[in-house]
Write a structure and sequence with these properties.
Layout (H helix, E strand, L loop, with lengths): L2 H15 L2 H22 L5 H25 L4 H5 L2 H7 L4 H35 L8 H24 L4 H16 L1 H10 L3 H12 L9 H5 L6 H28 L4
Helix pairs in contact: 1-6, 2-3, 2-6, 3-6, 3-7, 6-7, 6-12, 7-8, 7-12, 9-10
Length: about 260
């Protein structure tokens, strides 16, 4: 990473950290995790399951909201404030601007996930009184959630490169919802015929496969996550995000900013 990308990423991280909405969402996620403890106490013999399910779901959903809310304005906000023209008037290429914004927001989301994960582990320790060996799978599930954040950040940045903040939010959230049910979409493609099968199959492989990155239910029931799956999902997230970022750069390079 060159110094120009690092500088843009650092500024993006600082701007995101100063956003009050960011702190409100983190606080609400931690409160929801605390509520999971209360719900777990009135759930006979499934306290741990409830805490893990609600806790990790809170980390995932609120992280996605943060990624979309901040990501959709990464480009448009700079244009509205006319700071983008100042940045690009310096020896900064457009692809470096996009890359810096991506790494800055991704770094912000990783820090947020870490802070919210502390709340989840604290709630889990309060309920179970000790950590079990199987609880180490929570780290893999949290890692997969971070991979979701990386993909969502790339998508939000892609749409913000050519669309308004409102439409960018709609497009990004729609892909998140569709990607969550991508396995069902593949199953639907398998039972259809003709043009419907072609379209369903194409859509299933184009949208991000968020269902493969959702291990919350499996971990909550004590299931283990294999190292092969970790490697596969990491490669998938990096390749998919890289492809989306390349598309964002191509569009942004050709965008008329006047």
């Amino acid at each position: 990473m060159n110094t120009r990308i690092l500088h843009i990423a650092t500024n993006t991280f600082r701007e995101a950290v100063r956003d009050r909405v960011l702190y409100n969402l983190i606080a609400f996620a931690l409160l929801l995790t605390g509520a999971a403890v209360l719900i777990g106490q009135i759930s006979i013999d499934i306290e741990k399951l409830v805490v893990i399910n609600l806790g990790l779901t809170a980390v995932s959903l609120f992280g996605i909201v943060i990624a979309i809310f901040i990501g959709i304005g990464l480009v448009s906000k700079e244009i509205d404030k006319r700071t983008l023209y100042t940045v690009l008037s310096r020896p900064v290429r457009r692809w470096e601007f996009i890359a810096g914004k991506f790494f800055g927001l991704a770094g912000t989301l990783i820090v947020n996930a870490f802070l919210m994960a502390i709340g989840v582990f604290a709630a889990l320790l309060y309920v179970s009184r000790h950590f079990a060996v199987s609880d180490s799978s929570l780290l893999s599930a949290l890692y997969f959630i971070v991979l979701q954040f990386v993909i969502i950040t790339a998508l939000a940045l892609f749409f913000s490169a050519f669309s308004s903040p409102l439409l960018s939010a709609v497009f990004t959230f729609s892909l998140f919802v569709i990607g969550t049910f991508s396995e069902d979409l593949r199953g639907f493609a398998g039972i259809t015929h003709g043009i419907s099968r072609v379209l369903a199959t194409g859509a299933a492989y184009v949208v991000p496969n968020f269902s493969a990155l959702n291990m919350i239910n499996q971990v909550a029931h004590g299931g283990a996550i294999s190292s092969q799956l970790v490697v596969y999902n990491t490669a998938y997230a990096l390749v998919y995000s890289g492809a989306v970022l390349c598309a964002a750069v191509l569009i942004f390079e050709r965008r008329n900013l006047k």
